[in-house]
Amino acid sequence: MTDELELLDGTLRAIFAKHCDRSARLAAGRGFPRELWTVLERAGLTTLGGDGAGPAELVVLARAVGRAAAPVPLVETAGLAAWLVAEAGVEQPDGITTCAVGHPDDDLRVVRDGDGWTATGTLHRVPWGRDGDHVVALVDGGTLVVLPTPQRVRPGANLGGEPRDALEFDGAAASAVADSPIGTDALRARGAVLRAAAMAGAMESALELSLAYAGEREQFGKPISSFQAVQQHLVAIAEETLCAGMAVRLAVAAAPEQEVFAVAAAKNTAGCAAAVVTKRAHQVHGAIGVTDEHALPWFTTRLWAWQDEFGTTREWAALLGRGVVADGGAGLWPRLSASVGAGEDR
Amino acid sequence: MIDFRPSGLTEDEEALRTRVRGFVAEEFPSGTYLPELGINAAADAEFSRRLAARGWVGMVVPEEYGGPGRSATERFLVVEELLAAGAPVGAHWVADRQTAPVILTFGSERLKREFLPRIVRGEAFFCLGMSEPDSGSDLASVRTRATRTDGGWLLNGRKVWTSGAHYSDYVMTLCRTSPQEGRKHAGLSQLIVDLSSDGVTVSPINLLNGHHHFNEVLFSDVFVPDHMVLGEIGSGWHQVTSELAYERSGPDRFLTTFPVLRYFLDFREAAGPEAELRLGALAARYWVLRNMSLSIARSLDGGEVPVVEATLVKDLGTSFEQDVLDVVRDLTGGEQDPDGDLFSRLLADATITAPTFTLRGGTNEVLRSVAAKHLLRERRRAV
């Protein structure tokens, strides 16, 4: 990583280490962790994607969120909403601005109303929809709309306990409407890379916890890390974690013409890796890992949730596969061996 | 902390790759050529010399020893093109991958002058005298012994599963030069043995498909002159383990079955949701593994010795080579015909030799034990 990225990573690690401990997490179960959010805001991190930060920075941010299993919509606000509004030339509202994920059931429509616009319809599975002050959504493939959070919220959650809420609008006045140069496919791709990055971070933590526990826990009079069967699990966890991290970095480094392939490979790789890491990390931990007394479930439950968000592991595999079939035998090797852009340290 | 960084290619590297691709397309046209499978490849000394004439054998050997002085990354780029096309790289393989770098690192000036220019010209082929009947994964338990004699060493013992000894000129032999007292990793040495020496007998041990790839190599009072000792007497273990970053991380550890997949796409109908899902997942894995392997080549060029990274990539890559076959077999369907068309023959050969992928160069189970100890040690150090 460059010095700037190291600095960003260090800042995020320090904030989460201080403000995202066990008690903060228990409190988060009862309400939004305002204190943590305020710290992130003051550090300028919640507007990162609108301040000229590119995928390299946002991937560092998402990875740190995953590594800490931070119960805040930082990826959605800084990585998606801030980016979308900045690209459309709209100011990012103060407070928590979350981002609709382009759910297939979304039916939001925006109509002219005098000088302004009003919105009607429902946005589904919006991350932290209930806690946001505003939500940013793309409608009709290319129109950006910024809306205040409505009265009617149907709360929901993902497997990791993160809010995924339905927001219902009925003639709500929009704060802003603008043409968006970012389409729904590009939003989904950005979301997929950032989820993959968060997954790589969560897997790092699952690896760290597994190495720690295997080294401490004694059975049959010795640490369980001295058993080869356990060692094989630890190595598989490390390998898959490294694959996911590399796949994410490749998506960042990809040249424009290989971006779709690299994004799909990143989300697919992270999804496959998470399947191995969650199973084996739980196996290493035994019964304590399946209780809420241990931190492991913070990461594994999020990994199961994130596997399916912004395109499932299989959906991205199918996209890659259609490319392989279309390229045929002669096209396969040039595709797989295409060099990524630049070659600078990322 | 273990890490892999993506790396692009320079213009020179891209140009090199374009030249190699042109050469490979001419030598091995798809559809009429039966590809070789990775390092089980047949030996074709004439091909090795054509490659050498282009400067693509012993590429890392510096100019003062007759080589082109190219980087590990440039070698990576050449080798991956050859393996993806299923080229017959057998003859020069060990000399190119392993012997040239270790002679450069540990060899005397005399060994460098004597061997490196010949390796570069494709005129000196090597094999590795490591395994013995009672020493596989536990390599330090080798019993082949060299005892002191006038001007050199007298070698006695038996090596088995020695790939390519029947067409190689020399065998890099790991042996015991002092009796085992206490630590078994001490007292080991590496000798370069001329396979035409008196007292050397090479006989075939056929693979399960009947192919002659492995050999038994018997040493009976074979005289090895002092100057053929690689590095220091007694430093054999250190030298052998430092070879591992070269041996374990290259494209040969994930591309063995690539020609099978390529020919599947060329010769069979691949369509439908199952094919898309499974081929897509393979493509993602190739992409990631190739870039991890390339990242290790870059580390080697940067003067690092990424042994653990190489170990992990070898474990992942060789397991994946077998996974590729499972997918291709499922998508092909039906009974396999070892006497069918080019694709059928290739798939049959790959299916039968697949167990070798995760055995050679250290079984994957042993690799994982080594890697686990490293991970646990690093973590203890970090906290």
Sum up the structure in keywords:
heterodimer, A: 346 residues, alpha+beta, Butyryl-CoA Dehydrogenase, subunit A, domain 2, Butyryl-CoA Dehydrogenase, subunit A, domain 3, 2 domains, 4-stranded mixed β-sheet, 4-stranded antiparallel β-sheet, 10 helices, globular, B: 383 residues, 45% helix, 14% strand
Provide the gyration radius of chain A in Å.
21 Å
The percentage helix of chain A is 40-55%
- Describe the strand arrangement of the main beta sheet of chain A, using strand numbers: 1-4-5-8
Largest sheet of chain A: 4 strands, mixed
CATH fold field value of the largest domain in chain A: Butyryl-CoA Dehydrogenase, subunit A, domain 2
What's the Cα radius of gyration of chain B? 21 Å
Please write the string of helix (H) and strand (E) elements of chain A: HHHHHEEEEEEEEHEEHHHH
Count every helix of chain B, treating DSSP H or I runs of 4 or more residues as helices: 12
Indicate the mean pLDDT of chain B: 95
Protein model, in words:
The complex is a heterodimer of chains A (346) and B (383). Chain A is an alpha+beta fold and 346 residues long. Chain A is built from ten helices and ten strands. Chain A folds into two domains: 3-179, Beta Barrel (Butyryl-CoA Dehydrogenase, subunit A, domain 2); 184-345, Butyryl-CoA Dehydrogenase, subunit A, domain 3. The model of chain A has no long low-confidence stretch (mean pLDDT 95). Helices cover 45% and strands 14% of the residues of chain B. The relative contact order of chain B is 0.12. At the A-B interface, helix 6, helix 7, helix 8 and helix 10 of A face helix 8, helix 9, helix 10 and helix 12 of B.
SSE inventory with pairings:
The complex is a heterodimer of chains A (346) and B (383).
Chain A: H1 3-19, H2 22-28, H3 34-42, H4 55-68, H5 74-87, E1 97-99, E2 109-113, E3 116-127, E4 134-139, E5 143-148, E6 152-154, E7 164-173, E8 176-179, H6 184-216, E9 218-219, E10 222-223, H7 228-253, H8 259-285, H9 296-308, H10 313-337
Parallel strand pairs in A: 1-4
Antiparallel strand pairs in A: 2-3, 3-7, 4-5, 5-8, 6-7, 9-10
Helix pairs in contact in A: 1-3, 1-4, 4-5, 4-6, 5-6, 6-7, 6-8, 6-9, 7-8, 8-9, 8-10
Chain B: H1 11-27, H2 45-53, H3 72-84, H4 93-106, H5 109-120, E1 126-129, E2 145-149, E3 152-159, E4 170-176, E5 188-194, E6 200-206, E7 212-225, E8 229-230, H6 236-242, H7 244-249, H8 258-267, H9 273-301, H10 307-332, H11 342-353, H12 364-382
Parallel strand pairs in B: 1-4
Antiparallel strand pairs in B: 2-3, 3-7, 4-5, 5-8, 6-7
Helix pairs in contact in B: 1-3, 4-5, 8-10, 8-11, 9-10, 10-12
